Amino acid sequence: MADVEFFFDPVCPWAWVTSRWAVEVATQRNLTIDWRFICLRIVNEAKNYGTDFPEAYTHVHGGGQKMLRVAAAAREIGGNDAVARLYTELGTRLHNDGRSRSELREGNIAVLPEAIAAAGLDASLLAAADDDAHDKVLRTETELGLSRTGTDVGTPIITFAPNTDGEVSFFGPVINRIPRGDDAVRLWEAVETLARTPGVYELKRTQRERPDFS
Fold first, then answer.
1. 32 and which of 2, 43, 76, 174 could share a cystine (Cβ 3.0–4.6 Å)?
2. What long-range pairs does 24-28 form, CB within 8 A, spacing at least 24?
3. Are strands 157-160 and 33-37 parallel, antiparallel or unpaired?
4. pLDDT for position 207
């Protein structure tokens, strides 16, 4: 049983930063992370992409759905470790290398076959990108994450001690840089403390700096 469940959509830059922080903490505290899916295309399916989002979001969220389908197929073959490797390779290309802006917004998902190969996965998994049969698990896990936090959130969602009496979940934290070392652990402990404090629902400020993926 994992210590943490982390719900992600690979196209979200904020989730990517938070995920690398979670990985940093996991190496220091010997935590196990179960990588779960929250599909922004499904989260926003009731909205009008023509009026409610910038034009590129049709490609961005649609591309994320394709990537998550492949991740779901990878899990069937290689388990949680395969998902972790694929997410790492996707996130590095999309965000660290800036290709979410230069390619994904134009509908180009060339990062996907590259990430599959770099993750050591079979090239045949690429076919899953257009197989909507995988949307069943995407929807199930998206609904699971939102059932734990409420619906007015996005990605990431973190669940501490999943499937135990001590299970608690929070959206975020939304951070623009990756804490390292002791700073990473201190933030983790603070977030977990807030999540476990009855009656705490939201702590927020909307002013943000651009994400820093270094």
1. 2
2. 24/178, 24/179, 24/180, 24/181, 24/184, 25/184, 25/185, 25/188, 28/181, 28/184, 28/185
3. unpaired
4. 73
User: Tokens 């936090």 label which residue?
Assistant: 149
Nearest-angstrom CA–CA distance, 162 and 1: 8
Per-residue pLDDT for 205 more than 90?
no
Side-chain half-sphere exposure of 213, counting CA atoms within 13 A: 15
Structure tokens at 196: 């476990």
Spatial contact of 32 and 2, defined as CB atoms under 8 Å apart: yes
Task: Count other Cβ atoms within 10 Å, centred on residue 26.
Answer: 17
Taking only the tens place, the pLDDT of each residue in 154-176 is 899 999 999 999 999 999 999 99
Q: Is the pTM of this model over 0.70?
A: yes
Query: Distance between CA 187 and CA 17 in Å, rounded?
Result: 14
User: Of 137, 152, 133, which Cα lies nearest the Cα of 43?
Assistant: 152
